[in-house]
Design a protein that fits this description.
- The radius of gyration is 21 Å and the shape is globular.
- It is built from 16 helices and 13 strands.
- It is an alpha/beta fold.
- The protein starts with a strand and ends with a helix.
- The longest helix is centred in the C-terminal third of the chain and has 18 residues, at 355-372.
- The strands form three sheets. The protein has a nine-stranded mixed beta sheet, covered by helices on one side.
């Protein structure tokens, strides 16, 4: 199969078409504050042990974070998300959070809640985050421990979450649908809807590891649900099922536009947002880890990454006829997990077809059509 290429003859037109020229603004960025986590979830695509000294040494310093944030704000950025790993493992989390807030950014936080202390409660009460999202891995100690590999994890999660809820700090709850907790998913959904401020969402789509660790990837594969199970739980949840039914005209197309287009990126990656890794790697999205798609902000500027590097990544084309036929021009593309970033994690190539992704899309299509009669 051919490698992705940049067509110089079409680059200018493509930049205009995708609105990635001079007027493009990075309105938001996701910042993976650390890759370290105090949980050891088998399904996680990034986590390393909390005590991993090498990864800790790689983490951006507060000064480096402030430099990048200053550039982002100067370019028009309004919002950022702090995630991980588990971001509260950073001893300077409060300093990072407050620094970003003082720059005028709306700051959201993703956390597993197990490390929430009274200090964090006071911080969030005085300087509220835009959003605070917590993942619920199970609602019994047994399931929670099976997912996180932490025997005492459930009690610590409960204590941290209750500190937030008892202090009226708005929290959004979400879940991953896994082999280890799918039997408990209805109870997880009920728990989340009882406590969350406005919505609940769950994700059955598990990406493979950013570091491509074979042993860890086997753990992820063991947690994946079958395509038929994913379609079934999509429709077992009434709220999710209704959203799919309502939008099926968007998700399933009778005809596919731009059938001659060979560009790989047809998503929102890099159009008005970017991702920043724990060690300063600029990516168009959090999943896009292919070497040719990563820019080192420790040795360059955000402006150069955004205005020069990102457009060249977005202009990548494929010469692979199979991925063009089976993926890019597929009429049920939006029911699929496929994108260049996921393809690279799955297959080692940005433009490689994935049998698993394809089966998930077709299972979802069949379930939607069955529901619509």
């Amino acid at each position: 199969m051919g490698s992705p290429e940049i067509s110089k003859t079409t680059l200018t037109d493509y930049m205009l078409e995708r609105k990635i020229g001079a007027g493009r603004v990075p309105l938001s960025f996701d910042f993976e504050l650390t890759a370290r986590c105090n949980n050891d979830c088998g399904h996680c695509y990034i986590n390393v042990p909390a005590e991993d000294a090498r990864y800790q040494e790689e983490e951006l310093s507060l000064q480096e974070i402030e430099r990048i944030a200053d550039e982002a704000v100067a370019m028009g950025t309004l919002w950022c998300l702090l995630s991980g790993g588990e971001p509260l493992l950073r001893e300077d989390f409060d300093d990072v959070y407050l620094s970003l807030k003082r720059k005028g950014l709306l700051v959201s936080v993703y956390t597993n809640a197990s490390l929430i202390t009274e200090r964090h409660v006071e911080l969030f009460k005085k300087y509220p985050p835009r959003d605070l999202e917590v993942t619920v891995y199970g609602v019994t100690p047994e399931t929670f421990a099976r997912v996180t590999n932490r025997p005492s994890g459930f009690s610590q999660f409960q204590r941290g979450l209750n500190r937030l809820l008892d202090n009226k700090i708005p929290v959004r709850l979400k879940a991953m649908a896994l082999r280890s907790n799918v039997h408990e998913l209805p109870e997880i959904a009920a728990f989340c809807r009882e406590h969350t401020k406005d919505y609940f969402r769950f994700d059955p789509l598990l990406n493979l590891r950013h570091d491509r660790d074979p042993a860890r990837n086997q753990r992820i594969l063991a947690e994946r649900l079958t395509p038929e199970e994913i379609a079934r739980i999509d429709h077992a949840d009434l709220e999710r099922s209704e959203a799919l039914r309502k939008d099926c005209g968007i998700y399933i197309h009778d005809a596919v536009e731009q059938e001659d287009c060979a560009h790989l990126f047809h998503c929102g990656a890099g159009l008005n947002s970017f991702h920043l890794s724990h060690n300063g790697q600029f990516r168009l999205c959090g999943s896009l880890c292919a070497p040719d798609c990563v820019y080192d902000l420790r040795n360059g500027s955000l402006r150069e990454a955004w205005t020069q590097f990102a457009p060249r990544v977005l202009a990548m084309e494929t010469t692979d006829s199979e991925v063009r036929r089976k993926c890019i021009h597929c009429p049920i593309f939006n029911l699929c997990l496929w994108c260049p970033a996921h393809a690279y994690l799955e297959c080692g190539h940005l433009d490689r077809w994935s049998e698993y992704f394809c089966k998930v899309a077709h299972a979802r299509e069949a379930a939607l059509k069955d529901r619509l009669g």
